[in-house]
Amino acid sequence: MARNKFLVCFIVLLGLHCPPGRADGEVWILVDTEKLNMEIKKGDKTVAVLNNIAIGRNGAGVKYRRGDDVTPLGSFRIGWINDHSSFRKFFGLNYPDLGHAERGLKNGNIDQGTYEQIARAHQSGDVPPQDTDLGGQIGIHGLGSGNLSIHKSMNWTHGCIALTNDQIDQLSQWVEKGTLVTVK
After folding, report:
1. CA separation for the pair 29, 183 (Å, rounded)
2. Is the distance from CB of 153 to CB of 174 less than 8 angstroms?
3. Which DSSP helix (H) or strand (E) runs through 29?
4. 62 and 134 Cβ atoms separated by less than 8 Å
5. What is the pLDDT of residue 23?
6. What is the model's pTM?
7. What is the distance between the alpha carbons of residues 86 and 156, in angstroms, rounded to a whole number?
8. Given CA atoms 40, 161, 135, 88 in this order, what sign does their dihedral have?
9. The domain 19-95+135-183 belongs to what CATH superfamily?
10. pLDDT of residue 25
11. Which residue ranges in the chain fall short of pLDDT 50?
């Protein structure tokens, strides 16, 4: 038992730990907001890489409020899929998670009732409220009829993760409701 605890601590220190809630062999997505790429993974194996993604206009980090144009960091699940989005396809994340809700409550961005709504949604496996002051409607989407040259030249979203239409079509073969998405 002590050896296992040491091994787990060592793996965590190396940064090789599994994202929370990921089962071995599960398909999941790793979004690297510094490299601006997305890895589709099966367990620890990378099965595809999508490069030149776009994130929020104000980068990635702690998302404090609606309209800050920041892509939130953390581990989320795909909460819903819209195959008829104006962005071609939209894979909605179950943001805000409990960590964002706790921070929002502490900072006064949301009240206790809103925090409890978010917590109940996560506890029951539902999508949390998308209309709070913490923001919502965060997801992974294509360009739709958007400008490819703008996509290639800058981060342009309001907090989402954007792919080209070809990339979102490719991603579709891997994603389903409940798929883990880790944004780092």
Report:
1. 8
2. no
3. strand 27-32
4. no
5. 65
6. 0.86
7. 16
8. negative
9. L,D-transpeptidase catalytic domain-like (2.40.440.10)
10. 82
11. 1-18
Which DSSP string corresponds to 99-164? HHHHHHHHHTSS-HHHHHHHHHHHHHTPPPPSSSTT----EEE--TTS-HHHHHHS--BSS-EE--
What pLDDT sits at residue 43?
95
**pLDDT (tens digit per residue) in 117-139:** 999 999 999 999 999 999 999 99
Question: Cis before residue 96, ω within 30 degrees of 0?
Answer: yes
Q: CA 33, CA 114: separation in Å to the nearest integer?
A: 29
Other Cβ atoms less than 10 A from the Cβ of 156: the count is 17
- The structure tokens listed for 142 are 């294509």
Distance spanning both ends of the chain, measured CA to CA = 31
What span, in angstroms and rounded, lies between the C-alpha atoms of 2 and 57?
46
Q: Take residue 67 and report the two structure tokens written for it.
A: 């309209």
Q: Tokens 């409701």 identify what position?
A: 177
Helix or strand or coil: residue 165? Answer: helix
**So what's the pLDDT on residue 11?**
37
